[in-house]
Design brief:
There is one protein chain. The protein has 333 residues and is of the alpha/beta class. Helix content is 43%, strand content 22%. Helix 5 runs antiparallel to helix 8 and helix 6 (181-188) crosses helix 8. The chain binds 5'-O-[(R)-(carboxyoxy)(hydroxy)phosphoryl]adenosine and zinc ion (ZN). 5'-O-[(R)-(carboxyoxy)(hydroxy)phosphoryl]adenosine (KG4) binds next to helix 5 and helix 6. Residues 10, 137-139, 164-165, 167-168, 179-182, 185, 267-269, 271-272, 297-298 line the site of 5'-O-[(R)-(carboxyoxy)(hydroxy)phosphoryl]adenosine.
Length: 333
């Protein structure tokens, strides 16, 4: 079964062709980073306009690169939630129009669930269920008990900034471009993470919730006191380890409590090599299923992959044409 995936939840326009939920025939990503970099963050209005311009060329390119034609596609999968409303509408309406024109079904999938599915697509082996699911991205930081694919129980989530957002804001303080995560990681490689004793926030009575806004403020204060250019790398390294170690500690604690050994991880921050090394170092008994680095950032292959799965889950029924885009959509209560 050939599935066309469409992703436009935020600042990437992406299309992909995936065979049977796993085999990626093409995956095209048009990033808007250069546009938003001028403003230091995503400007929703500009994001919509850019999606309008590049959606069709991206679609054409992904079909061409897969060596197929539009009429070979059997199903369309689109990320219809969560995200920026204008951006979501662009992808969803493209999917609906194509579904009508080609006479094939479409399914809407949850972007956050797709980040978890990316880990399954990336590994030959499957995790043992129940496993834990961890999403660390620019919009989300959350931990779930995954009973099986499609059944999630929320364990903890961020009460303020997402971890990727904290990387981006810290990068801005350090004068690095948007999106800042990869730049913080590169700078941190030259620094000593022990220099500053930062710690991510803890939420009273909620040991699995996250809070990263204080961490970013701590970085700001550190920069105001006797700060020299040579301290930038140390600051980046100290911030990075504090943020990542918090995710590892909470994941490891949840795994111990629930007697779970397998973890599936996804989202832009899993592109960071330090988080992978720290998990190995600090939680060696956990079996981590990482997405490939291409599938860790926003992409449409994970949307197509999950779409294949959702279509089976729905007994091969597509969604109706009145499916609405949602800016928020929890995977579970
Ligand atoms: O999953 P994603 O592409 O989009 C969302 O769904 O949010 O994640 C983007 C986030 C950004 O905040 C970006 O700075 C962060 O992931 N990110 C990283 C790295 N690469 C991307 N953060 C830390 N280290 C990285 N190497
Ligand atoms: Zn994402």
């Amino acid at each position: 079964m050939l599935v066309l995936g469409i992703e436009s939840t935020c600042d990437e326009t992406a299309c992909a062709i995936v065979k049977d939920g796993r085999e990626i025939l093409s995956s095209v990503i048009a990033s808007q980073a250069d546009i938003h970099n001028m403003f230091g963050g995503v400007v929703p209005e500009l994001s919509c306009r850019q999606h309008v311009e590049v959606m069709i060329p991206t679609l054409k390119q992904c079909v061409e690169e897969a060596g197929i034609t539009l009429s070979d596609i059997n199903l369309i999968a689109v990320a219809y939630a969560p995200g920026l409303i204008g951006a979501l509408l662009l992808g969803l309406n493209t999917a609906k129009a194509l579904s009508l024109a080609l006479g094939i079904p479409f399914v809407g999938v949850n972007h956050v669930e797709a980040h978890l599915y990316a880990a399954l697509m990336s590994n030959e082996a499957s995790p043992l269920f129940p496993c834990l699911g961890v999403v660390v991205s620019g919009g989300h930081t959350a931990l779930w008990d995954v009973e099986e694919l499609g059944t999630y129980h929320l364990i903890g989530h961020t009460v303020d900034d997402a971890i990727g957002e904290a990387f981006d804001k810290t990068a801005k303080l350090l004068g690095l471009p948007y999106p800042g995560g990869p730049h913080v990681e590169s700078l941190a490689a030259f620094g000593d993470p022990q220099t500053y004793s930062f710690r991510a926030g803890q939420v009273k009575g909620r040991p699995f919730d996250f809070s990263f806004s204080g961490l970013k403020t701590a970085v700001l204060y550190a920069m105001k006191h006797d700060f020299h250019e040579k301290d930038r790398a140390n600051l980046a390294a100290s911030f990075q380890d504090a943020a990542l170690i918090d995710v590892i500690n909470k994941t490891a604690l949840a795994a111990r409590n629930k007697n779970i050994s397998d973890i599936i991880l996804g989202g832009g921050v899993t592109n960071n090599l330090r988080i992978r090394a720290l998990f190995r170092e600090r939680a060696p008994s956990l079996r981590c299923f990482w997405p490939t680095r291409e599938l860790s950032l926003d992409n449409a292959a994970m949307i197509a992959g999950l779409g294949f799965n959702v279509y089976q889950r729905r007994n091969q029924q597509g969604h109706p044409l009145n499916l609405e885009a949602l800016t928020r959509l929890p995977l579970s209560a």
